[in-house]
Amino acid sequence: MYPYQYDPRFQNLFPPGGGQGFPAFPPGGGGQGFPPSPPGGGGQGFPPPPPGGGGQGFPPQGGAQPPSSPPPAFTPTPKLGSGGPSLYAVDPGAISGCLYRYTYIWPRNGRPYWFYPTFVGRRSVAGYHWTGSFWVYAGVDVNQIREFQCL
Q1: How many whole angstroms separate alpha carbon 102 and alpha carbon 80?
Q2: Is the pTM of this model over 0.70?
């Protein structure tokens, strides 16, 4: 079945007690070729998380929280009217006036949705997207926004 021959010299490479075939790591040390974790480090060779950063799609720690209530029950009407394609990109400076306000977004592709922006960068907006049941932290490229309206 396997083209490799069994070599008994490697039988004790991973002694029992480490769980799942891996050796146990000693507390405080790196163990099995890993350097010890520095004070305040990320552990096992990983860098510490950035200060104030949430990482992995989570909002920054200590940053803006989602709204405590759902968005308004009504749906705003777009001002562009026809709903056809727009030749103009959304200016980040314009959407920055919607920070910490309920904002309805009409994307270039996809269904419109409620958004609660908490950060505006040069080319993106981050905040909370309403799923219909709860708020989820997300980011949007301003080039993907056809139109927006904040309350």
Answers
A1: 19
A2: no
